[in-house]
Amino acid sequence: MRHEDTGNTENTENTDMLTARALVKSYGGVKALDGADIRLRGGEVHALVGENGAGKSTLVRILSGTLAPDDGSVLLADEARAGGIAVVSQELSLFPDLSVRENLFPHRPPRRFGLLDRGAMDRAARPVLAELGLDVDPGTLLGELPLADQQLTEIARALLRRPRVLVLDEPTSALSAAAVDRLERVLRTLTGRGIAILYVTHFLEEVMRFAQRVTVLRDGRVTLAGVRREETGVPDLVTAMLGGTPPLPVHRTRAPAEGPPPVVLAGVCVPGRLTDVTFTVRAGEVVGVAGLQGAGHLDALAVVCGRTAVSAGRVHVGDRGLPRSLRQAVRAGVAFVPSDRKRYGLMTDRTVWENVTAVSWLALGRGGVMPSRSELVRRTLDLTERLRLRGGPHDVVTRLSGGNQQKVVFAKWLATDPRIVVLDDPTRGVDVGVRAEMHRIVGELAAGGAAVLVASTDLAELTELCDRVLVFVRGRLTGEVSGGRLTEHELAAAMQAGADLRAGPRGEGPATAGG
């Protein structure tokens, strides 16, 4: 990577602090960045947005110097070179068992006579903490602070390096509305000092609120380059993220079964995660849940699976009330296919037949106390043939491809004859062929009378699979998208501006999510 100076000036406002040109980075045969450009100016918040896999993380790593591009250059102004680039990551790199002071000076802290000079540390820290509006004693244990204060502590640590370029990666994904307001004030303070801020986010509402400019990445390419905020809007950003004309919607012919719905949530609250969430899922339908990170849609799935307790509201799953554990949920007829199959879905050192029969035999006791191995293998063969799995029942799971491992997870839960199927990113990491197989299986489950709930980071998957999609924004169910409106573009817009869905399709009042 080539670094160049771009001159010196006393007033850094509107000065090009960093310019990246034609950045290219490949991993194997896949281009994460394909000629990406970006220019950061002093005194501005520059938002960087794009879907998962668009190349944002790769770009940030190159700008921070932790990753070298295959081609292209990064040019720094004298001020940026002198002050450096600081990155505040989404996952905080702090130590909760240490004090705020110790977290602020993790490397080369001031010393006196060979001992830590706490006075010097506090004198350096207090002005920065005050500038961020963080009124804490530097000796306080970090773990005693709320998350918003911990995040500001990480920003303070970055500012103690006196950077001229500051990268904030998803800074509000876990913050309350009040904490977001506080961050807005911090951003104004920092840009007033002439710092160039790269603000990486999924929340387009924050782009329109905080940023002076915005760049959009799609498939490693820049589709919107440093456009001024007032010259664009959320629909333009969604189109830049997803592509041009939305595809024609797929019209569903599935009809839910009559009778009581097997999944009911009414007024459900989970402190800090869900607020007054109400929806039902009927037998024979596939219902998606969508939202940005931390929106609450995955928490709703966790409630159904018995993995999250509620503080208020009513939950009915299967023929029972609220399951208190995943085991109780399984006994109520719930199957749960997790996104991380290796950690939560498989016993990777065991055979296919041991994995497939684990829940139905060990958890539910089907087949008696000690069914014969031949019987368990026969049941496994029936399921793996149905799923077209490439591999025998006696193969160790680690020998299978990722797609076939995912089929083993599906087979394990199909063996329980579930009434309710909960899928979290069911086709993550599998190829197009396996994805089509998984979608076929989901359709068969619904046709057989199961109620299916599915979350996916791939909006196209939700439009292909689902009869309707429930949209969550900041812990609230803000509405649903269905029928002719169920497109990637409509979903993306709804996730960004969920308040727009509070009115029904003709403005007749709050949208329902009952099916």
From TrEMBL:
Gene Ontology MF annotations: ATP binding; ATP hydrolysis activity
SMART domains listed in its UniProt record: AAA (SM00382)
Coiled-coil ranges from the UniProt annotation: none
One Pfam assignment: ABC_tran
Top-level taxonomic group: Bacteria
Gene name linked to the record: rbsA
ABC transporter domain ranges (all copies): 18-244, 258-499
Keyword Transferase among record annotations: no
UniProt keyword annotation of Membrane present: yes
InterPro entries associated with the record: AAA+_ATPase (IPR003593), ABC_carbohydrate_import_ATPase (IPR050107), ABC_transporter-like_ATP-bd (IPR003439), ABC_transporter-like_CS (IPR017871), P-loop_NTPase (IPR027417)
Protein name: Ribose import ATP-binding protein RbsA
Keywords associated with the record: ATP-binding, Cell membrane, Membrane, Nucleotide-binding, Repeat, Sugar transport, Translocase, Transport
